[in-house]
Description:
By secondary structure, this protein is α/β, with parallel strands linked by helices. It is built from 24 helices and 19 strands. It has 4 domains: 103 residues, P-loop containing nucleotide triphosphate hydrolases (Rossmann fold, 3-Layer(aba) Sandwich), CATH 3.40.50.300; 104 residues, EF-hand (Recoverin, domain 1), CATH 1.10.238.10; 117 residues, EF-hand (Recoverin, domain 1); 171 residues, 3-Layer(aba) Sandwich (Rossmann fold). The strands form 6 sheets. Strands 15-16-14-17-18-19 form a 6-stranded mixed beta sheet, sandwiched between helices. A 4-stranded parallel beta sheet has the order 1-2-3-4, sandwiched between helices. The protein has a 3-stranded antiparallel beta sheet with strand order 7-9-8. Strand 5 and strand 6 form a beta hairpin. Helix 8 crosses helix 9. The longest helix is centred in the C-terminal third of the chain and has 28 residues. The chain is elongated. It starts with a strand and ends with a helix. Keywords: Calcium, GTP-binding, Hydrolase, Membrane, Metal-binding, Mitochondrion, Mitochondrion outer membrane, Nucleotide-binding, Repeat, Transmembrane, Transmembrane helix. It is found in: Mitochondrion outer membrane. One of its GO terms (biological process) is mitochondrion organization.
Amino acid sequence: MLFPVLCSIEAEQSDEQLYQEISKANVICIVYSVNNKKSIEKVTSHWIPLINDRTDKDSRVPLILVGNKSDLVEHSSMETILPIMNQYSEIETCVECSAKNLKNISELFYYAQKAVLHPTGPLYCPEEKEMKPSCIKALTRIFKISDLDNDGVLNDNELNFFQRTCFNMPLAPQALEDVKNVVRRNMTDGVKDNGLTLKGFLFLHTLFIQRGRHETTWTVLRRFGYDDDLELTQEYLFPLLKIPPDCTTELNHNAYLFLQSVFDKHDKDRDCALSPDELKDLFKVFPYMPWGPDVNNTVCTNEQGWITYQGYLSQWTLTTYLDVQRCLEYLGYLGYSIIHEQESQAAAITVTRNKRIDLQKKQTQRSVFRCNVLGAQGSGKSGFLQAFLGRNVTRQKKIRDDHKSYYAISTTYVYGQEKYLLLHEVLPVFEVLSEADLACDVVCLVYDISNPRSFEYCAKAYKKYFMDSKTPCMMIAAKSDLHEVRQHYSLSPLDFCRRHKLHPPQQFSCNSADAPSKDIYTKLTTMAMYPHMTQTDLKNSTFWLRASVGATVFAVLGFAMYKALLKQR
């Protein structure tokens, strides 16, 4: 910590040396003589303007006024100094001391250190006698994270959890009551149902600051990830996470439990879906709205278009898989590491083993599988993605172009195991398919049976990119409710599949009154899980039947179990 001591008597140093010292300082002590009126006047006429001219307005260095030679006078200079302190918010405090007899010298260094570690400037505006907006914003987020049941008050259990989190010890019952009584005496709406409201919480921190106990508020802020500028630190939001090549990222069991609790506390009407207002309330702890309207077309929603419980978990799963750094950031905003008492939110992530090892061992521990969907323009790829989310053509027509998503994710069940299948619609630019377009666990080649030129794209894509790869492929005969025409290709789709030992084209249509069947998606997940299986194995009807029956039974059981949990609450 650097703190130059600027004396109101001219020092023997050049202006350049002085400016360099000011620029390096963490705190500056301005020394005046308590028995010299001109010395006091120079604090405001010379030193403070000089310092402010050499420092950025948004990051002013804290100042300590030091009244020296207190041994020479009987009176205090504080009556003269207080108006100066009120005029300049960057002044932290004033200490009168004596260099001759060492009176208050240790206190001077204590306050200088405190001004750096626990500055007043970012927290409080002395002119307005209230906390600054950025401080209120940070403390509001902390309150919402600590309000574990989202009822708008911190009950005794929540207050004690907060106390242990920040100060490593709970409050005694009487101490809790004393805190609430202080709030009750000073404001009418600070305590509700014997719990501390947001207004009461903010009042307490204002009181701490006004009484010079800045360290209490700073301890809370830093525990929840804030830096000296009241911004969440990069170290907090983006903890180190090493991901080797050919490995993927998934949420672990504890992370899903945490996200379930977040969903549950915001699903006020217990309808297993988040209304727009409930979703907005959930993301109030974020500095921006992380989910756009495309998310509603990426995951399952109810008839009103609200994201369901399953859809909510699916979106988190997708973010973790596609952009784990973004997921870490989001979990940081929600306070995962604090609520689950982990070192960082990296503890929420499982890094899967290398895919080559899965192929060698002929088994996988992964829960998320990616299926890239390719096909010519107008072949029905978007419809195939939306059908996975249970939407028929009628519901798909209501989707606005600017709300379209090129991803769809939901759960399937293979042999009783719940897995996530992530569908990605690849843009039909045949010549410029990137590694990302090709990197997946299973490929879906979609053609329109009513368009004679649709299959050609699938055949060429397969022969160029997938024929010699180990990635399993499935051909989808889309729009099977329409009249099938002969494809303008040297081989029919069925003969092409036979020649290349692929499963026969799967008939698919979403033009029905009911929600489309999920059987085909179960097949895709099974192929992704067991890429080592031969096409003969995959064609076996018993194999598909067992997987599909498991999907139906466990999907029903899974939702029923969640409903039962809600009823218990």
